[in-house]
Structures
1.
Amino acid sequence: MTQPINCRFQEVTLDDVASLKGVAAVFVGSDRKLDACARKANTLSRKAIERFVQSDCFDDMKSGEAARLAYPTGLAVEAMIVVKLDRKPSQEEARKAGAALAKEKGAMHLTALAGTLGAVDDVALGLILRDYDFSDHKTASPKLRGDATFMVSKPETHDASKIAAIAEGVFFTRDLTNEPANVLTTTEFADRLAEMQALGLKVEVLEEPELRKLGMGALLCVGQGSVSPSKVVIMQWHGGGDEAPFALVGKGVVFDTGGISIKPALGMEDMTMDMGGAGVVSGVMKTLALRKAKANVVGVVGIVENMPSGNAVRPGDVVTSMKGDKIEVVNTDAEGRLVLADVLWYTQERFKPVAMINLATLTGAIIVALGHENAGVFSNSDDLCGAFLKAAGAEGEGAWRMPISAAYDKLINCRIADMRNTGGSRDAGSITAAQFLARFVKDDTPWAHLDIAGVASVSGATTLAPAGATGWGVMALNRFISDNYEV
Ligand code: BES
Ligand code: MN
Ligand code: ZN
């Protein structure tokens, strides 16, 4: 498990600046004015900071960028990092500044001389999030990552544990999503979720015999070609009163070969991230538990592996869902919707949630439509959708609403069964997938489906994450829950 670095907040002691070890940082806005911390470092370093902020180099820096003054005279630190940031930065600029510090800090301890700077918690969060490194499968000893101390004027107004709760949720999602499928088997996934009972979550693991009893023929057919058993894991956080919970549902395909409708070899290894939806649900549940959220939330994930074998489901097979609807599996690679159909139905039947959001790396077509900047949002409720988009916007996690309607729904009608699991062509591929899910959502359940195929894992670094799993959605959903379901 990747542990976030430790961030502490303590009172500014200017007398200590000369003898600080590791690296230190000061923050200077575009007005070039030095605050008390920067002034102190400037005097000690015989005006090195002043010379730098008067230079063209500082002029050319964008807000949130950092520059390194190495081995400054008069200071014990190995480098003084000058971060360009106004005293009242936006959340986005503050997080970007934190991310820049993560890169400059490396293995060393960082003392950020923040003083009265605004949005310091976001600087800290950006720093922690960008300092993620998935190195479990590198033989060399892991890269050292130094901790950080923020010297601030009012340490009591900063809650390091709340920041850590978010970071730990995001890291949990990233670790699960990055993990190869021979390590993160269905059983290993369920075990890692069961460990969260130590945090006060109630975790249940439903095994195949129970799933069969429940009639989950859609979910079960996906995993029937794999030696790894299919599972449904239910995580309950009871932090509110006796009201019905808000529900999160996730697609947890630990590996998607496509099954008998097998995928091409090129890039198939990326399908280790096909449990990304379940990964986000798990990360959010972890954050809620760590920060003891005052809300009732249930997370339900369907964990399966999609493999070809003599026992695998075939194209043309007809399966019966828990709801009772019969589905012709015309393409075994459209498996995520089969898993979600039963998990969505189970969640509504058992919990009667006030609202339900599912996450899934559901379609390649959403990447064609939106690339890697935005998840696709499909919803039967303008209110729910609007509230989610607002939370995602506030966290800087891209999300864009897509349409659903009766005309698209018709495309999954089927000659021999109630429906088929694709629209039969590539046209509107993400929408026909959403229409399939919508058939398993009750009319009175406000629901949104987030297609995260393009954002769950990316090939290049983003502002707050190195290449690979991003943890997209953990912060948006955490905020969505706190804004809408907590008092
Ligand atoms: N897991 C894939 C979708 C996916 C593609 C996720 C790329 C991440 C990156 C999903 O199960 C799938 O195979 N979808 C098919 C559906 C098609 C067969 C109707 C697709 O998108 O091609
Ligand atoms: Mn597939
Ligand atoms: Zn898939």
2.
Amino acid sequence: MTHMVKRVMIDRAKIQEMVDRLAGEINRDYEGQEIIVVGILKGSFIFMADLVRKITVPTLIDFMSVSSYYGGTKTSGIVKIVKDMDVNINGKNVLIVEDIVDSGLTLSNLKDLLYTKDPASLKVCVAFDKPDRRKTEIRADYVGMSIPDEFIVGYGLDYAGRYRNLPDVCILEPDGGKK
Ligand code: 5GP
Ligand code: MG
């Protein structure tokens, strides 16, 4: 594997401010209602854990795993359901929690699929958004931060399975010559 060095793009303090703001919006919008928060594995796991601890409306938690990246840095455009939800979302308020929207293909496919299960409402909360890369018209209802077109890792996001545990969001760069 090529050696990489990391540069911090968004530090942990900024991330926590972002999570506080998003949770505030969610708590206001769903006041008096119950929500099912569906985290999209694996990238959302840290964001999800931070976010749901700040959500004060009644909440059910579930996870799904879909894959559209096969270990590289390019979007294939194919979404495969690796693990489906366990709860029945029929008639419920569903909030999808995703790490990042890039081309938008993952989310738009996923939304189409979940709509067939007749939720009362279906919204999306993403930590990070790369609006310049969109290949389909999709907008998340709650967006933590818009970022430039760079491949990020950390705070749950990986490169070939690694770096998910970094507490800050970082950019990978070639490591000047070392192999
Ligand atoms: P989309 O279908 O929107 O192109 O891709 C969304 C998925 O691609 C995300 O859930 C994430 O797994 C992956 N992805 C997109 N951009 C990045 C990035 O900058 N870093 C990492 N680690 N994953 C990304
Ligand atoms: Mg993902």
